[in-house]
Design brief:
Radius of gyration: 36 Å
Number of domains: 4
Shape: elongated
Structural class: alpha+beta
Number of strands: 21
Largest sheet: 11 strands, mixed
Length: 862
């Protein structure tokens, strides 16, 4: 009685906000204070009986919303993972080769390392620091009679060593296992982790490294005696910053042993093959330094190898990682939508349960402001708590990210993304506040009475169902699914059908996307590998295959149906340097074109889509292409192609030109006695087969037996680009997405059915009185669930297929693959049938509740 008296006093003091009922109008400040006081009092007084509903809001929003925010934050963390990692390694701004043991690049290039050149580079204006790395042409034998496993087309591990602390404080390697070497110990070294299993090495392996002198290498003598020998023990496995994200082609030459400065200084003057300088440049002056380097480094060497900055490497990594981050962001957005739908349904259910007191409050003089405050205070407090919990859950999920190749070396465990978590919190609160306000207005007493009066007239749905000839339980279940009564006990049938449609749409679009991804992975022509095998020259294509000799052997091979040679180089177009493949115009085997035609004439060029966009050009345009110092040609853009993982930074980058436009010195950079292509693209009968691979291995051996340089290195099957290499991370996302959304749909359907049973207790009790058994009442609920899900299936399946195909087209075009969406008909059918089966499973518990409806107890009030 005391609580009721206090409630009436509060109502009398301020809820008649408009001065109705003969009361004088209150000042606005006093009205607001009274409204809040009354709403707060009612919230405290009814909290115990409503806390279950509030707890459901907090937990559902916290968990489902937390997964959503965690996925979106994880997408951002994944996309930015490589720049964040790279910054932790203290990267240099510019790298340039300053010596290369190859007379074809100029008379001066008879030494692989000249100490005077790095000193001159360090003295250049704007160069703040310079670090030198020396590479060696060395042979490695593992002790105890175990030799390295180097596969066809792959390079043996390269041997590099800094003269200072490069790779240990600047461009620092990341330790994976073991320890870093003692820089003063010439007998310790580390190996990059990517090559550990491929080569059969491990921490503790002892290597014997034999080296030839520069003079011996230039003499052309076969197997000269070693000029120096090193014996080193591998003390650790590391990851080099530039090789974190690689395609299969880069992996062929990715094995590297890093020796200490103490070891480097013992052999750099006698046995170096090349050296390069890593520079830290005063802010924004890289172009000026590049210009001055042209006066220090021989022109042919600079034309052949150019400069290397961090930006292209970062861009390559970002493009390779982007599909994973996009998939994560889509998952997060759909999970957030599911959270909003599910929590919105719970708020609606809570609002309807609380609505039984609205008529009493109105009768006691409650005005619109008080009714609105009372309707939203509890739900919004739960929403705010749930949104805060979602942010915490998302933070706790952050160690799961980033996905992809950077994850093993990412320097930070936890991450708080203020942008995602802050905006996500606001979106949840604002949207669900709008839902609560809308429901409060919709369930106002006047509106409820009007809908109740309107519902007294038979609906078109009711008339159609009544004339359908269905059994009584089936007819009633269909009406329950499609028809909402007009009083406050109304069941949210529209939201139930919308939720089922949305869930099925998302699941079908997800499996369509996943099937298209699997199709892309399993069909190499879609990502530029328009042949079966690549027959490489030595050191993964660094040397030359003798053109006529190789062509003759391939032409007589019974498995080969077509083969075309290709050269690797680079070209400058409007100041932009791109990687190019040199081929014969009209070659039988070329990368697949996505528009226009392939290379058919010597005055044509075929470009990757991204390079075409970056150049601002179009099909039919004429470009001035410079392939070496003094070598320029005017070429017409004939088409765009999906570039293979055989060179260049990705499927949309690079170009194809006539090989004769590449200067001979660049085509034959290793100085082979019989020059020719670096690789042959080979198509074989019946596709990939063990017989074809053995036959090509025999061709490789025949070439080596016929050429003293032994330039052939064997044939390899498909080499995947970075995006495809990282597809294992992407493949799991559709599965998780489908499972998550399916789980959310099941929860939402279960909540709706339980709410329906509770709100239809009067109808169920009447049917029980009229003779329906408990089993028939359970059948009513099953028909209700089946009807809602059947409509969702009819709507969601075709829309899901359409959305999945559209998403795949956008995705494939974004990574410059050839779009070929795949619809998994069997899987979609299983989803449609499984949805109906699952609906009946979910309906079991609400059906059990309905079957136990006590007719006498509920009808006593009548």
């Amino acid at each position: 009685m005391a609580d009721r008296a206090r409630w009436e006093r509060l109502l009398g003091d301020g809820i008649g906000e408009g001065g109705g009922g003969g009361r004088p109008a209150r000042p606005p400040g006093r009205v607001s204070s009274a409204v809040l006081s009354t709403a707060w009092y009612r919230f405290r007084a009814t909290f115990r009986q409503r806390r279950g509903g509030y707890l459901a809001i907090v937990l559902l929003l916290g968990l489902v919303g937390g997964v959503a925010l965690g996925a979106v934050a994880g997408a951002r963390r994944t996309q930015s993972s490589y720049p964040v990692y790279l910054a932790s390694t203290h990267p240099s701004d510019l790298q340039v080769f300053d010596a290369f043991l190859n007379p074809a690049l100029g008379a001066a290039e008879t030494r692989g390392y000249r100490p005077s050149t790095p000193r001159r580079i360090a003295a250049l204006r704007y160069v703040e620091s310079e670090s030198t790395v020396v590479g060696f042409d060395a042979n490695i034998d593992q002790l105890q009679g175990v030799h390295l496993r180097v596969g066809p087309g792959a390079k043996p591990p390269s041997i590099e060593g800094p003269t200072g602390t490069e790779y240990f404080d600047r461009d620092a390697v990341t330790l994976v296992s073991g320890r870093l070497p003692d820089l003063a110990d010439p007998h310790e070294a580390v190996l990059n982790a990517q090559a550990e299993q491929e080569l059969g090495l491990h921490v503790g392996s002892v290597l014997t490294v034999t080296l030839n002198s520069d003079a011996e290498l230039l003499s052309g003598a076969n197997n000269p005696p070693p000029a120096a020998t090193l014996r080193v023990r591998l003390v650790g496995l590391v990851v080099f910053p530039q090789s974190v994200v690689t395609d299969d082609y880069d992996a062929l030459g990715g094995a590297e042993v890093l020796i200490t400065p103490a070891a480097t200084r013992r052999i750099d003057l006698c046995c170096a093959t090349y050296s390069y300088s890593a520079l830290v440049v005063a802010g924004g002056h890289e172009a000026a330094v590049e210009s001055e380097l042209a006066r220090v480094i021989p022109g042919k060497l600079l034309a052949a190898v150019g400069f290397e900055r961090a930006a292209p490497v970062v861009g390559l990594a970002d493009r390779a990682i982007e599909p994973e981050s996009i998939a994560l962001a889509v998952f997060g957005g759909l999970a957030a939508l599911a959270a909003l739908v599910i929590v919105g349904q719970v708020i609606g259910r809570q609002r309807r349960i609380e609505g039984n007191d609205l008529d009493t409050m109105r009768a006691l003089g409650a005005g619109p402001a008080t009714m609105l405050a009372e309707a939203t205070m509890g739900s919004m407090a739960a929403v705010v708590a749930g949104a805060l919990l979602a942010a915490v859950v998302a933070f706790l999920c952050s160690p799961l990210f980033p996905l992809g190749p950077v994850r093993p070396v990412y320097p930070y465990m936890f991450g708080w993304d203020w942008t995602v978590l802050g905006l996500g919190f606001l979106v949840f609160v604002v949207v669900l506040l709008a839902v609560a306000l809308l429901l409060a207005v919709r369930l106002a007493p006047e509106r409820v009475r009007r809908r109740a009066q309107a519902s007294e007239r038979p609906s078109a749905v009711g008339r159609a169902v009544a004339s359908s000839g269905l059994s009584a339980p089936a007819m009633t279940g269909v009406r329950f699914a499609l028809e909402s009564v007009g009083d406050r006990e109304a069941v949210p049938v529209r939201s139930a059908i919308l939720g089922a449609s949305l869930a099925i749409l998302v699941i079908v679009s997800t499996v369509t996307f996943g099937a298209s991804l699997n199709s892309l992975i399993s069909r190499p022509p879609l990502y530029g590998w328009n042949w079966n095998y690549a027959l490489f020259s030595g050191f993964a294509g660094d040397e030359d295959l003798p053109a006529h000799l190789a062509e003759g052997f391939l032409a007589h091979d019974p498995y080969v149906t077509a083969a075309s040679g290709a050269y690797f180089s680079s070209a400058s177009i409007d100041g932009q340097r791109i990687q190019v493949i040199g081929m014969n115009p009209g070659a039988a085997v070329q990368p697949p074109v996505s528009s226009g035609t392939d290379l058919r004439a010597s005055n044509e060029i075929v470009l990757g889509v991204s390079d075409m966009a970056a150049l601002g050009t179009h099909l039919g345009a004429t470009l001035v292409v410079q392939t070496g110092r003094g070598h320029a040609a005017r070429l017409v853009v004939a088409g765009t192609a999906t570039m293979p993982a055989i060179m260049g930074p990705g499927m949309g980058y690079g170009g194809i030109i006539d090989f004769s436009l590449i200067p001979p010195a660049i085509r034959n950079a290793q100085g082979n006695t019989i020059p020719g292509p670096q690789v042959f693209f080979v198509r074989t009968k019946g596709g990939d087969s063990a017989g074809a691979l053995r036959s090509l291995a025999a061709v490789s051996e025949e070439i080596n037996n016929s050429d003293s340089d032994r330039p052939a290195d064997g044939a390899t099957a498909v080499l995947r680009p970075e995006v495809i290499v990282n597809s294992s991370s992407i493949e799991t996302i559709p599965t998780v997405l489908g499972a998550g959304l399916g789980g959310g749909a099941v929860v939402a359907l279960g909540i709706t059915l339980i709410a329906s049973v509770r709100r239809r207790r009067r109808d169920l009790a009447i049917m029980r009185t009229l003779g329906l058994s408990g089993r028939q009442l359970a059948t009513v609920v099953a028909w209700q669930a089946t009807t809602a899900v059947a409509i969702g299936t009819v709507v969601g399946v075709p829309l899901g297929i359409l959305v999945g195909r559209l998403l795949w087209d956008v995705f494939a075009n974004g990574i410059h693959a050839i779009p070929a969406p795949t619809v998994p008909a069997l899987t979609v059918t299983v989803i449609a049938v499984g949805s109906l089966v699952l609906a009946n499973v979910v309906a079991a518990l609400p059906g059990r509740i309905a079957a136990r409806t006590p007719a006498g107890l509920l009808l006593r009030a009548e």
